Amino acid sequence: MKSHILPVTNPKPSSSSSSSSSSSSSSLAAVAAASLIPVTSSSSTAGTMLFGSKDDIATTRLLISSSFQDDEMAEIKPLLSRTLSYTDTITSTTPSTTFDWNSYQQKRRRRSPSENSLSSHSDGGDRNQPLRQVRRAAADTYIITRLSFKLLKYLGVGYRWITRFLALGCYSVLIIPGLLQVGYYYFRSSQVRRGIVYGDQPRNRLDLYLPKDSNGPKPVIAFVTGGAWIIGYKAWGSLLGQQLSERDVLVACIDYRNFPQGTIGDMVKDASQGISFVCNHIAEYGGDPNRIYVMGQSAGAHIAACALVEQAIKEAGEGESTSWSLSQIKAYFGLSGGYNLFNLVDHFHSRGLYRKIFLGIMEGEESLHRYSPELVVQDSNFRNAASLLPPTILFHGTGDYSIPPDSSKSFAESLRNVGVKAEAILYEGKTHTDLFVQDPMRGGRDEMFEDVVGLIHEGDTEALAKDAKAPPRKRLVPEFMLRWAHNVSPF
User: Is residue 121 annotated as part of the catalytic site, yes or no?
Assistant: First the structure.
């Protein structure tokens, strides 16, 4: 049962709200799932790290082999200082304020025979090059394995993360019927465009989930996945992407550098650049540049919120050049996110994401305020930039023990205090994984999913009529297994 705790209003600015709890999954998953990534990313397009030559691999081996000192954790920088050059990197341009549908259709018809616009940004050509696939998979496996061992060194032998590691294994086994079906769709569906390059840094890629109905431009969600800032990966959004595309919504799942490959500043920069690509290029894939929504889950919700707040500050400044504008964003959807980092330190330390690691991810204690969106909007200097933020809807389960629901309630209140339209929607008894994994795999009617689709199609009578007639989604995992997964989930 859902309860609307905070109504959508635009109250006059008032005093700042109290601090909240914040963001993301426990670090046990960091090590466990990191070791699984090479398996799921063995496709040519699922690149956690791509190497162009033997020199790149040698450089990476040298960088990774250098040891970290525990007393320097707060000053950790990305391990991979050498960036990758893509010959097909896209340079963002300032988007037009109007969308000429007739012109777009003509251009699309001219491109359709060869579909060069897709192949130039993606890894589709690699499908005919098995040797290159094997090399890339080997490079991915190498880098992830080495980084995983580094994380194990940081974590040490602790009962917290070991317990959660075992719980994660049990959880994965219980939902594996659903994972196999989603994985098959991800790698085999013609509606998925994997590995589209949006920048020149490692992991600067995104996946597109295209609706089957190509009539007219589609609303778009730019989605930033979660993963405790350590195991985030674009394929984690494949279930959401599949289901939204069935409702005529185009989804772009943005990948970004994780720790220790990058720190929070790199993650926010990557997310912002991915959003910029969507704003400037999504019309080429049938998306409507005038109906773009940004969404993030868990750590991704925090990263996306940081990107939006930083963009507002840039646009409010004088002479600051930007490649995209907040005026292009219809709304921000935050799912199970945390927005006040000061409330994260002790909470995550108790759950296995130890203080030194967390501060290393967040670039030291002195950066906690800068990367706490709730605290930034409370700052009196942010008043002018606040008016640029899009309407914000925050979804959270009341049974979430990874990130308490007060985090979303408090952030929504802080936004309303500075004049931003904001709402927190809570789902009774739902945990951190229920809303994003178990409920979608259960089939039938998913309350949060229906709320998201309803908000996107609000005012579109034709789309709402289609939604009302949409068939129930099929079940992916037996109910008894989902109930056990709910009980053993480490998140």
Answer: no
